[in-house]
Structure formats: structure tokens, C-alpha cells
Design a protein that fits this description.
The strands form 2 sheets. A two-stranded antiparallel ribbon has the order 1-2. The chain contains 1 helix and 4 strands, in the order E-E-E-H-E. The protein is of the alpha+beta class and 54 residues long. It has one domain (2-49).
Length: 54
Amino acid sequence: MAWKDATIAVTTSVGIACSDDVTDVAGLLHSADLALYRAKAEGRNRVVRAEPLG
């Protein structure tokens, strides 16, 4: 992406968590957060799905 005379590098990393039982919202958010950090560690510019809640 360019802005004025500078080139700005932009990356996007996404962590996704899904559940049929949304009674544990904190656990769901934690799973998505872990997936996000895994996406960043695996090279960024990717989407990573969280492991199912157990």
C-alpha cells in the first residue's frame, strides 16, 4: 500500500473459533485468540481455525 511517497506494508492475520454451545463466551474468545497468535507465528497473512472446545 502506498501513502504519499512511502510504501506501507500491511498484513492480516485472523483467528476463528466456532461453537454450537455459546455458554462459554470467554473460552470461545480465548480459542480465537490462540488461533490468531498461531496465524501470526505461521507467517501471517492467513486465517487459522481454532481447535474445537472440549
